[in-house]
Amino acid sequence: MKRGSFAVLSNEDIAFFKKLLPGRVITDESELLPYNTDWLKTVRGASKVVLRPKTTQEVSDIVKYCYDHNLAVCPQGGNTGLVGGSVPVFDEVVITTQLMNQIISLDQVSGILVCQSGCILEALDHYLSNYELTMPLDLGAKGSCQIGGNVSTNAGGIRLLRYGSLHGNVLGLEVVLPNGEIVDCLTTLRKDNTGYDLKQLFIGAEGTLGIITAVSILCPPQPKSVSVALLGCETFDSILQVFKSSKLYLGEILSAFEFMDSQSMILVKENLKLNSPLVDYPFYALVECSGSNAHHDEEKLMSLLHAVLDKGEALDGCIVTDSAKIKNIWSLRERCAEALMYDGYCYKYDVSLPLSAFYQLVLDMRDRLGANATRVVAYGHVGDGNLHLNITSRQYSKTTFDLIEPFVFEWVAKYRGSISAEHGLGLKKREYIHHSKTPSAVALMAAVKKTIDPKGIMNPYKVLPESILR
């Protein structure tokens, strides 16, 4: 990969930024390291400066200066991405939104929250709980990821089954374009049928079209009751039958349906010393229901448990309603990503597949890799067809990597899946976009990018192949 024809940061540039953001410009090499390195510690850039604005106007002034002086920019939120989309590739100017963490307004009747893009997801959820509301998304990285980054990557997570994607829940955005212009589409209206829905351009664009500075989002009522069932199953087909039964028996209170294979459960037991209330089974289903009546909801979940056991869809199961026990059950699933890091190096793949082909990818990958991998584990959101395939080895191995890529993307394409379900393309997957999108669709994306960012300064080297942007 070659560096683009962007200007090199000068002392004059640094002086301008320090005048604009007194005390909020980072140039010390040791302090720059976390901003230059991704969460997985697999990608590292060489930015010489990190800028920490507090307001949209400051972001606008920074970006306009960079546009006028042909300096490439890397927007960064919580830096919890897994595809190298939030760190510089070369020496781009990093603009972090971590100080843009103010809540602007909350309409308690409609449940519409307006906030700056640097607000931490978990902090927003805690704030909303005071008003009996909740965020429509929940992620494992909620303690550090930011809502602007969530929107920029169209993050999914475990609540998508219940509340849908951010494309539906985000009502408005405020965005700074690559030339520094502020586009205010920060509406709080649920219905606005006046022309193009411009906010959709920036949801999932991974910061390549502009920097999101504020978000208006629809927040549902906080459930009055939450119950969770953990079920042990013999086959993945049984998991699918349990999912079908869950929709039938739980209806509107079904809020999450997750699965783990036996290797995932072994992983969290061995590496994190977690305990499961069930004995060992080939597969596990985690079913969550949330509603307004604890007795009614628990009764429906109990009916589901009896039904799936009677029909042989599940071999064993338990139901928990205590919040501490619910947290323990969820930790078995949510901490899988953390547990993988103890194995050494992890090759992570986040794909969408038809449920009929969902687990076959895991079996084929195990056969293909053999002794070249320590583990091949799978877990994910069966409720929306999102598989998290993870392969570990004691250290990075080129042999193992070459056995995985591009095979995994070709396999997904054969079944008309998506090579990225919720983490985006970033740097790592951009060259494989054609496995999920047609040439005409990719060409249209490139046309949009060139129109909005003619100099290509906004998060370069990400999402779209370099060849199509020339």
Automatic annotation (TrEMBL):
GO terms for cellular component: mitochondrion. Its cofactor is FAD. Keywords: FAD, Flavoprotein, Metal-binding, Mitochondrion, Oxidoreductase, Transit peptide, Zinc. It is found in: Mitochondrion. Its main location: mitochondrion. SUPFAM superfamilies: FAD-binding/transporter-associated domain-like, FAD-linked oxidases, C-terminal domain. PROSITE patterns: FAD_PCMH. It catalyses: (R)-malate + A = oxaloacetate + AH2. Catalyzes the oxidation of D-2-hydroxyglutarate (D-2-HG) to alpha-ketoglutarate. Also catalyzes the oxidation of other D-2-hydroxyacids, such as D-malate (D-MAL) and D-lactate (D-LAC). Exhibits high activities towards D-2-HG and D-MAL but a very weak activity towards D-LAC. This is D-2-hydroxyglutarate dehydrogenase, mitochondrial. The keyword Metal-binding applies. One of its GO terms (biological process) is malate metabolic process. The gene is LOC106057460. Belongs to the FAD-binding oxidoreductase/transferase type 4 family. Its EC number is 1.1.99.39.
